[in-house]
Amino acid sequence: MPSNPDRVEEPLARLIAAHPVLFRGKEPAISSFLPEGWYALVDRLCSDMEATLGPQGCAAYEVRQVKEKFGALRFYCRLQGEGDLYVDLKFEVSRSRFVKPAVVEGADRIRALIEQAMADSEHICQRCGCAGSLRNLGGWHVTLCEPHSEEHANHGDGTATVRDHEAIRVSCGAGNPPVR
Ligand SMILES: [Zn+2]
Q1: Which domain, by its residues, includes 151?
Q2: CA–CA separation, 149 vs 133, rounded Å?
Q3: Looking at the structure, do residues 21 and 88 belong to the same domain, yes or no?
Q4: CA–CA separation, 25 vs 35, rounded Å?
Q5: Counted domains in the chain
Q6: pLDDT tier for residue 80 given thresholds of 50, 70 and 90
Q7: Which of 65, 140, 142, 160 is 20 to 30 A (C-alpha) from 74?
Q8: Cα of 48 from ligand 1 centre, angstroms
Q9: 118 CA to centre of ligand 1 in angstroms
Q10: Averaged pLDDT, 164-169
């Protein structure tokens, strides 16, 4: 998926800058990327986490990895002194057995917030943030809007010209820039 690092790194850098309390200015320890179309979704998730935990609670959390997997958002974090908190119910159910009981106030709420964001990501185009759906395109699971799905089919490798993007932007957002 990260065929163009510039494109995926930039939203993550913006996210880290926008949430200094949660990220403490550092990239997640495990290689991460954030598709542009999900920036607003994850930005909201981070804001909700910060509001729920407060500065002290945030200090107890470490965001370990943010990525796309099987066309859906994955957002992994862990509590200080605990094992990784993998909330990955759809594809890796067995891992949830290793999640330890919540020891931080609001931890259950955090888990619910993350689960909701990951579920929502399956309905948001990972390219542009418009309404989309989870698709299987030639073995690749991706969540795309209709125009971006067509673009993917036309170009195969997922690349597109600037003109393509302008056309897509107009067709899915009536000329509005992608939601950020
Ligand atoms: Zn799209």
Answers
A1: 133-173
A2: 9
A3: yes
A4: 19
A5: 2
A6: confident
A7: 160
A8: 25
A9: 17
A10: 49
